[in-house]
Design brief:
The chain is an alpha+beta fold. It has one helix spanning about 35-50, and strands at about 1-10, 15-20, 25, 55-60, 65-70. It has a single domain, classed as YggU-like (Conserved Hypothetical Protein Mth637, Chain: A, 2-Layer Sandwich), CATH 3.30.1200. The radius of gyration is 12 Å and the shape is globular.
């Protein structure tokens, strides 16, 4: 399943908010050396109860607007 995520780095805390067009992720990490992307994957992993290896940023790795592939949903196990 593919989801659209708008990332807001340097937030006070990590949180994921569902919107009409996808999700908005507030990430406490700075967008330096891929740390915000790693934090996003960790947040999605915890939210959707998936292993980090089952989550991949397939578009927009260097952008605030990303397309994320969830390779397996919890119901697939």
């Amino acid at each position: 399943m593919r989801i659209a995520v708008k990332v807001i780095p340097n937030a006070r805390k990590n949180e994921l908010i569902q919107t009409e067009t996808g999700y908005t992720a507030r990430i406490a990490s700075a967008p330096v050396d891929g740390k915000a992307n790693e934090a996003l994957i960790a947040l999605l992993s915890n939210t959707f109860c998936l292993a980090k290896k089952d989550i991949e940023i397939i578009k927009g790795a260097a952008s605030r607007n990303k397309t994320v592939l969830l390779k397996r949903m919890p119901s697939d196990t």
